TrEMBL record:
Species of the source: Aspergillus bertholletiae
Annotated Pfam families: NAD_binding_10
Keywords recorded for this protein, A-Z: NADP, Oxidoreductase
InterPro entries reported for this sequence: NAD(P)-bd_dom, NAD(P)-bd_dom_sf, NmrA/Isoflavone_reductase-like, PCBER-like
Similarity section: Belongs to the NmrA-type oxidoreductase family. Isoflavone reductase subfamily.
Name the record gives this protein: NAD(P)-binding domain-containing protein
Residue ranges annotated for the NAD(P)-binding domain, each copy included: 32-161
GO molecular function annotations of the record: oxidoreductase activity
Amino acid sequence: MTTTTTVATTTKYAKDQGAGFRNDIRRVAIIGAGGTIGKPIAQELLKTGNHTVTALTRAGSQNTLPEGIETVQVDYDDEAGLLSALKGQDALIITLPMNAAPDTQLKIIQAAAKAGIKYMIPNVWGCDFTNDSLMNSGLGTERHYAAFKEIEKTGVLSWVALVCGFWYEHSVGLGRATFGLDFVEKKMVLFDDGETKINVSTLAQCGRAVAKLLSLKVLPEDENDRSVTLSRWLNKPVFISSFRVTQKDMFESWKRIAGEKDEDWTIVYESSSERHKKGLEQMKNGDHSGFVQALYSRVFFPNGDGDYESKYGLVNELLDLPQEDLDEQTRNAKELMDRGYNYMTKRN
């Protein structure tokens, strides 16, 4: 994937910027601040004490927002309303559901540029979008490229996008279609040999990463400033991860925290490529549950596509992200499931 450089990054140092340039990000707007990834991001931003966080919400939204967040109701089809809501913001974070209209994000990008926002984290979360083969595997994720191009085309905005893998505790509870754990039938479906390593992240780790990024200085002050700045990642991916694990690692973790043994489960093996094909066929036939199976199966292909850590390394240390414990996060996933969070009884 190739990108261009926007006006905002043509000068390297803060001392060379024009009058009115501020070398930090204070006001952050979030679309989807009550959602799966939006809420932990908002919570972590508020914890820093460095930001005023504003949630852009649609009329009638039932999502519960973190305490301390400001709210503005918007209609994504009302450009004037969007401009008013975005005016004065330094950065915009977009988290939209997968079923959002394809042009929604583009409308928001255009409004953000007209409002004078400089930095954006678009609705691109999870898989390695720099991997063209992975992105062009029939899942519609190639639309991410359209978002990047639209942002850069404005000549005003710069983007930062998190490559974090699947959200671990969220995915565990989705059942067989994701990590192969079928909690209804007590069946573990191992893709290929079950030993393909992929990167995954917790929602909290993603929230911390975004908060750390937006708390950095935007540019080095001058040529002697060696501090880590946001400019390092403008119009570039940010690779983070909580764990580099296999299905077998996840299964062993589940058994440890649940007090279960192999004999409590039936273990079967399926081809990741066949699961991917089946998921795509379901999508063609109007069964949208096939998307989840196709997406996860594709990342588990034993060609290394899901293991971006080995290819590019991670920025966890640069962002001072904590090391997490797999069993603790699996326990968190189980507690969420026990409360009914995101558990899908429909199995694929």
